[in-house]
Amino acid sequence: MSEDTGFQPQSGAGAQPPGPGRTPPAGGQPHHFRRMIPIWLALALACDLIWWFVVGPHVPPGDMSTSAVGAQFDFNVLFLAAAPVVLAVWVYLAYAVWTWRASRADAPEPVGGPAARSNFKVQFWWIAITTVVVLAAFVFGTVELIVPAGAGGAEGPNPIWKPTAKHMLVVQVIAQQWKFTYRYPSYGGMQTNTLVLPNNTWIAFHVTSLDVIHSFWAYQIGVKVDANPQLDDVAYTKTRQTGTFTVRCSELCGIWHGAMFDYGKVLSKSAFDHWATTTEKKQAVNTKYLPPFAWTYSPTANGATGATGVNTSGQSPFSPEQHYGATPARKLVRSSLTSTATPTTGT
Amino acid sequence: MSRSWRIAIVLGLFACAVVLVVFTAMAYIATSPPTVSYLDSQPPGATVHLVMQTDGVVGSATGGAAHPTWVSYRIRTPKTHAWTHTTLVYLPAHSRIDVTIYQFDSGSPLRNQHFGMVTGTIGNDAKLNGKTFKVLNSYDTPNGQGVGHTFTVPSLGINVPLEGNDTSKKTFCTYGPCDPATQLHTKTTFAFTTPGVGNYRFQCFIPCGGGRYAGNGGAMQTLGYMGGFLEVRA
Q1: Which of A151, A177, A192 is where one domain is finished?
Q2: Is the ipTM of this complex over 0.90?
C-alpha cells in the first residue's frame, strides 16, 4: 500500500486481484487522492467565496443589532467550515462511484482483507482533522457567546457577560397569555403595547412572565430570552440600525401561542426620546396605578389579591443607580453624547 | 373458524376503530360556535351597533353550552335581538362600530393594571354607565368591585376594561343569558373603526378561567366563551 495516503489499497499487499476476465491496469493504480484534492479544493473555495460574498450578507437575522450581526457572522463562519467537509464527502463519493464503477472493464474487486483493516496514516489524519474542527467550533462558539455580552441570549437574573457600555436603556418585557407588554423604568415606569428602542444604544432586556413560561424572541435584533414567572431573565444587545422588527413568543404557551406576536421599532435617538416623553405623559394616567417597578412582575405584587398597588414581592423597587451605575439610565440615554458614567450591571 | 374469517374479523374491527376515532376527532375539531353577522344590520357605510354581554356563568338555557359553569361572552343577534352564545362576529370593513357591553360578572383587581387603560377606541376613551373614562383603576373602581373582564383586540390595539359587579346584590345574575333590563350590570360603550378585511382575535386579559393554572385555560382560551374573532369582511 502506498505510504502517501490511505486511498490506494489496490496497489499494495491485500489488494484484491481483478475479477474474472479483468486485467490489472498497466503501471498500477493512479494516485486517486491527489486527483480528488484539486477537485475538492476548487469546489470548496468556490462555494465558500460565493457564500461569503453573495449569500452571507443576507443571512438572517440581519444586521439591526450587534447580536444580530453576531448571529449572522456565526452562521456564515460555521457554513464556511461545514461546506468543505460536506463537499469532501460528496467529491469522494462521486469519484468513487465513477472511478470504481463495476461496469468498468478494468475495475478491481471491492477492497477487503488486511488493507481495509487498518491504515495508521488515514486514522491519524481523520482523528486529527475532526478533533481540530470540533475544538475550533467549541472555541469559536464560546468566544462568540462571551465577547458580545451573551450574544443576545438569556443570562438569567445575574448576568456574567455584561456590556462595558457607558449608556444603557433598561426595558422590562412582560409576557402573559397572549401578549407582550413593555415597561420602561427610566421613563416613569410606563408600560406600553409596543417595543420601541433608540438606535446605537445598548439595551438591557429584563424578561419576565405573569403566568406560564413564554419566550421573548425579537427576531431581527437577535434577542431570544425565556420568560419565566417570578424570574428576571436578562439579555443585552446594541441597536445599530433603525427599522421594524418582529417580536414572537417562541415557547408553546397555550392555544393562542401563535397569535402572540407584535412589531417593534428602532428609532433614531431623538425620535425615540420624543416618543418616550410623549408616551410617558399619555400613560401617566395609568402609570400611577401600576405597582412599583420590580424585577419580576408577580400577580400578588400587583395587588391582584387585594393589596392595593403595594409591592408585596419582597423585592426592591427598581433603582437604576443601584443596577446600572451612578446615573439613572434615563439620563444616560438622553445625554448619551456627553455622559461619561460607567454603569455596573447585574443584580 | 377458518383463518381467513379470523383475519376478516380483525380487519373489520380495526376499520371500525379507525372510523370511530376519525369521527370523534372530526366532531371535536370541526365543532365551532355559530357566527353572528352584523354585515347586513345597517345600510352600507352606516354605523354598526355591536351589543355583547359577559356572564359569570354562561348557563345551559340557550346555545347548548358544553360548559355551563364557565364564564362567557354572548353576542346579540342584530335582527332578532336574541343573545347568541358565541364569540364569532362578522363586521363590515372600514366602518364605525359602536359597541355596547353589558357586564354581569363580578370583578377583581387586574393582574396587569396596564389593561385598565382604554386604548384603540375612537377618542381613546369609553363610557362606563354613561360617564366617560380613560382608565379604570382596578384597585379602586367606581363601584369598588374591580374589573370583571376586558375586551381586548391585541392586533388592533383595542383594550377596554369592563367593571365588575357586587355579587351580594339580589339582582346579581347567577347564570346567563342575563337580562340588562332587570339584572345588575355595568354598561360600557365605546366605538372603533374596523380596518380592512381580516380576522382579528379578541380575548379577556383578566384571567377568568377559574380552576385553571394562573386563571388561564378553560373559558379564557376557548372560542365561544372568552376568546373570539372579529371577522371583518368587505
Answers
A1: A151
A2: no
